[in-house]
Amino acid sequence: MARPRVGLAHGEVGEAPDAFTPAGLAAVTALVARAIAAAGCDLPALVGGKSVLLKPNLVRPNPNSPRSVVTDERVILAVIDLVRAAGAAAIRVGDNPGYGLSLFAAMAGMADFTRRLAEHGAELVHFDAADPVAVANPTALLFDPVPLPRVLLEADVYINIPKMKTHVHTLVTLGIKNQYGLILDDNRMPWHRNDINVKIIDILRVVKPDLTVVDALWAVQGQAPLSGSSVPDMNVIAAGTDVCAVDAVCADLMGIAVDEVAMLRLAGQEGLGETDLAAIEVVGEDPDQLRRRFARPVLSSMGAYPAVRVIEGGACQGCLSALRHALDKLGSEDGFAGRAQATLYVGVPMPETVNLRNVRGQLWCFGACSAPLIYNTKEPGRIARHIPGCPPHILDFYKAYKAAAAPDSGTGTGKDHRTPCA
Q1: b/e map of 83-108 (b: 16 or more CB within 10 Å)?
Q2: For residue 106, which of 118, 94, 115, 116 has the smallest C-alpha distance?
Q3: Average pLDDT value for residue range 298-309
């Protein structure tokens, strides 16, 4: 049996994602074409006369800062141009950004992007514009049936175009994780717990991309996917027909071992793709010349920000990740400025020591497991603010903390201990 091939292409581009020229787009298109060819993918045979769905990562696009979060527009346009030149009958681009935000709302302010999609011959489709189709998943461990977008099921060919990023919760977000954007919020957000990796793999059981093209022109490290820092001018494109093999190679390029990534361990264990680097043929550039050591994301929030004294009890990664996302967002926006120190408890408290001692400022309880601490019987009248959920939405604490600073909230100083539950 032939080893799966992953194509790597690298070259100087010399332009930023948000300030590119036709010459820069041509350079990126050449890189994408080289990577796809190196992967052994015959595009005309794959897409000729067929309808094609492209699934980039469009999670929370920001027209003022498009460099770090979303799939580079140049890569999306390059794939569109190559697929169209290969004879595709129709090309659609779609995603579900998640976090309670429709794609229509997420794309507000991105009129130039949507116009360029149309100019290059592609149609933007909203996965959340219609009810999903329940697809049976008999070999799933948790997720059966899987609700998938109708436009995905109607497409003849599905091309996955993720961004190379670290991830606070799953360590990396590449091709396999990018498929989580196929799922709408009502089935997606409640599963951002430790079991997110099993659910992602259950999606892979029924949806395997025909081709995965990873954007690593400007990659993202650290507190990603939303608060990471750019790795500028990495200028790498990776491609392959086995998404697991592509992710394994890309994790290695990030300085992250395959065995560190739970979804890759599970994919290999379940036989859903090749994750053993020794069994993957890398064609094109030498990965040893491209490898970087990415800054790792830090999941814990303890001691991260002086304004919020975080105490972690028996918390799972779902709450820890959601909280760290919220705090990083506040930190990046200078949202702690002028605020008195607060105390935040996350996770299950010890049963014999339910009540906290020496609480500083307003007490916040994060997640369903922390509910026993809402009422502090050692200090009658002291009621914590509670952020419910299993886990809470990543923006719930962010919004509540900002609202608590409003002049009429009575909690701006952090000294009001009689604030009712939020």
Answers
A1: bbebebeebbbbbbbbbebbbeebbe
A2: 94
A3: 97
